[in-house]
């Protein structure tokens, strides 16, 4: 979740933004929907968003946070989160990307990646979904038990994907 805020909170230092599991919402009255949902970066910054379709903690279709078992968290309000696609659409609009996504070829039928290109200053939004994947870093390990986080996949290594993303989306060095 913190890395999604990076382009907003630390814009001068941000090369790009990536998020694997979280959404950031800023419910400030009077802001337009895009700014209310994700904040407004001072300059265009590309976004990589990777999520699992079975993430009940940050549900793809929105809704209340649940454990993979379907039960709620004790002491956590059942506040509904907006759908992940709403967050992605907000970034697409903020960056001025084409509203129609281009589907990228994948070696795995359970991994879907779409790209919204043509944004300001060459920015783009890359949105990857992993079928059946829960709330865990793809290709990584989690201290959380499966009944909380859900199932994991090793078909995608998010660390490698993020590194490739940063290499493909460099920002120029600021002039002194």
Q: Short description, anyone?
A:
The chain has helices at 2-9, 33-38, 84-95, 146-149, 158-168, and strands at 17-19, 47-52, 63-64, 80-81, 102-104, 111-116, 125-130.
Structural account:
With about 180 residues, the chain is α/β, with parallel strands linked by helices. It has one domain (about 1-170). The protein contains five helices and seven strands. The longest helix has 12 residues, at about 85-95.
Helix content: 10-25%
**Succession of helices and strands:** HEHEEEHEEEHH
Quote the average pLDDT. 77
Distance between the termini: 31 Å
- Can you count the helices? 5
Number of domains: 1
Main sheet properties: 5 strands, mixed
Q: Helix- and strand-based class?
A: alpha/beta
Instruction: Return Rg in Å.
Output: 16 Å
Provide key terms for this protein.
single chain; 176 residues; alpha/beta; five-stranded mixed sheet; two-stranded antiparallel sheet; 5 helices; 7 strands; 23% helix; disordered N terminus
